Amino acid sequence: MFDIAGELHRWLAEGREFAVATVVSVGGSAPRGPGAALAVDREGTAIGSVSGGCVEGAVYELCARALADGETRVERFGYSDEDAFAVGLTCGGVIDIMVTPVGRQAPARQVLGAALSTVLRGGPGALARVVEGPAELLGRALFVHPDGTYEGGLGGVPELDRTAAGEAGALLEAGRTGTVRVQEDGSYCPGGLTLLVESSVPPPRMIVFGAIDFAAALVRVGKFLGYHVTVCDARPVFATGARFPEADEVVVDWPHRYLRGTETDARTVLCVLTHDAKFDVPLLEVALGLPVAFVGAMGSRRTHADRERRLREAGVGERELARLRSPIGLDLGARTPEETALSIAAEIVAGRRGGTGVPLTGLRTPIHRDGRSASAAA
Length: 378
Prior knowledge:
Blueprint: H1 5-13, E1 18-27, E2 37-41, E3 46-48, H2 56-69, E4 73-78, E5 94-102, H3 107-120, E6 125-132, E7 141-144, E8 150-153, H4 158-174, E9 178-182, E10 193-200, E11 205-209, H5 213-224, E12 228-233, E13 249-252, H6 255-261, E14 269-272, H7 277-287, E15 294-297, H8 301-313, H9 318-321, E16 324-325, H10 337-353, H11 371-374
Parallel strand pairs: 11-12, 11-14, 12-13, 14-15, 15-16
Antiparallel strand pairs: 1-2, 1-5, 2-3, 4-5, 6-7, 6-10, 7-8, 9-10
Helix pairs in contact: 1-3, 5-10, 6-7
């Protein structure tokens, strides 16, 4: 649902009544992961998507029905020869979708408002909703903060709310969206209630080292992919906000010194575009010792060979060197800064999602990866 947070928050502020359809789980090949949402208001306005177009019409009708009768329902859509081009998934997958009406007095309205406000401020939090269990509990929600406090409730049982908040907090800490099961009395075991937990965490970081024209193009692509993008360069004449207006921040500092002092995590990607030994060798010494998602460096194969030699002389081990993606990017035949940025982004996405980077034509593997891996939230 957080993919349409801005529009939903506006609808709440305007007092609109609407229904939200949310992907609960996916199986096989499906275009959208858990948490993807489509919403329809009483005027028939629709926002968002749950399937990339395959079942949107049928889900739209379910939203209209939910607005009419006030009932929350969960429906399954899957491939069959008879309805594949009507309401089925022609890509062969199966998706479960929960449709929840949000009226002016809906119990979930206040919880939803708190969740959307937090997301739009860039704050962390997890929205937990009942997607399987007694009919009267379907759609009940609570919103969990990082400190374990929560708003809302699932059914008036304090133990259940505390257990649900604990499970949602665990997924929030991992930055994941997915389902968990809890017992109605609050104990954790198979059965009972199933909760969809949608986690919102600050966007992952992309740090681009080297204030060059290729960096400007990579900043734009990084923002498009949802990264918080920083440009760092030691040369103040080049590292300016005017040259990188789309960057979240521009830092003038020696790259290795900045990287030592700034915050990174397992989702951070580091792109070294300096291809100058005095900058990138000390920088890569630091970068390859950090538990980040991606470390890539620009340069020719000759530059890369010289860089590896210098890093070995500096004491960087083979295990750390094996993490270095250099020359950075996939082989797209890129020439321009924009094409090069695309090739770099493609390698980052392939690494993040487990892709091969080869053309889909002729492959026999699934186009869409397992839903659990695709649900890792950023």
